[in-house]
Design a protein that fits this description.
This protein is an all-alpha fold and 79 residues long. It has one domain: Orthogonal Bundle (Non-ribosomal Peptide Synthetase Peptidyl Carrier Protein, Chain A). The protein has four helices and no strands. The chain has helices spanning 2-13, 35-49, 60-63, 66-75. α1 runs antiparallel to α2. It is globular, with a radius of gyration of 12 Å. The model has no long low-confidence stretch (mean pLDDT 93).
């Protein structure tokens, strides 16, 4: 899932052309994505993980980095 998220960011929502993204890069603070990109990323994660992320979980703590996203998914897996 890490590679899928990284590739999605690089090829579909990154604000600038980037070759790679590290799992601990701060997506918003580093300017990799903007707020609209974050919403696209959340929708992508929901689709790929086949879960619905409730509004109260849409926090920086859960979606600041790819590592945070993966940790969130691990803690909220329906399987």
């Amino acid at each position: 899932m890490k590679d899928k998220i990284s590739n999605y960011i690089i090829h579909h929502i990154a604000k600038q052309k980037i070759e790679a993204i590290h799992a601990d890069d701060d997506l918003l603070a580093d300017g990799l994505i903007d707020s609209l990109g974050m919403m696209k990323l959340v929708a992508y994660v929901e689709k790929e993980a086949q879960i619905k992320i409730p509004p109260e979980d849409l926090t920086l703590e859960n979606f600041m980095t790819i590592d945070h996203i993966l940790e969130y998914l691990a803690n909220h897996s329906t399987t």
